Amino acid sequence: MPSILMLQIQEDTKNAMRAKEAQRLATIRLLLAAIKQREVDERISLDDNQIIAVIDKMIKQRNDSIEQYIKGDRKDLAQIEEAELEILKKYMPQPLTEEEIENIIVEAVSSSKATSIKDMARVMTHLRPKVQGRADMGKVSAKIKNILENKA
User: Fold this and answer.
1) How many H-runs (helices) and E-runs (strands) does the chain carry?
2) Considering the entire predicted model, what is its pTM?
3) 149, 110 in Cβ contact below 8 A?
4) Does residue 128 sit in helix, strand or coil?
5) Which long-range contacts (CB under 8 A, 24 or more apart) does 3-8 make?
């Protein structure tokens, strides 16, 4: 059975077609293609968390492209990427607050019995499913390093 998020994406595809929203339709089709590609590559049906990971990757790509286009003085291309970014963000779960992130990190550090920076991978394994797509993993990683360095 398809995931709830996948059903929502498919429904939005139909709505975009009916409303003749070319930009939105093109972006959703890119998303569907990325999901299908991962399903074919890994021979699985993606669940909501895996679809969120695909969307998160696409959002990062858009952010990188926007940065490069602005540096290259190509505001026209940056605007296209920004429009795609806004469409993709609508499928992401509600972002976590700083306090929620801190609580999840503390819980992951204690449940993984991490004592030093060498245990970073174990902590990341514990918390990744809880924060994927809901927080910037770079910032989360920096916070974990800070906590583990202070423990040592």
Assistant:
1) 7, 0
2) 0.78
3) no
4) helix
5) 3/45, 3/46, 3/47, 3/48, 3/51, 4/48, 5/48, 5/51, 5/52, 5/91, 6/35, 6/46, 6/48, 6/51, 8/91
pLDDT digits (tens, 9 = 90+) for 64-119: 999 999 999 999 999 999 999 999 999 998 889 999 999 999 898 888 888 888 88
Q: Which of 31, 142, 143, 144 is nearest to 92 (CA)?
A: 31
For 60, the enclosing helix (H) or strand (E) is helix 48-71
How far is it, in rounded angstroms, from Cα 55 to Cα 87?
Answer: 10
89 membership: H or E segment, kind and range: helix 75-89
**Structural domains in the chain plus CATH codes:** 4-89 (1.10.1510.10), 98-151 (1.10.10.410)
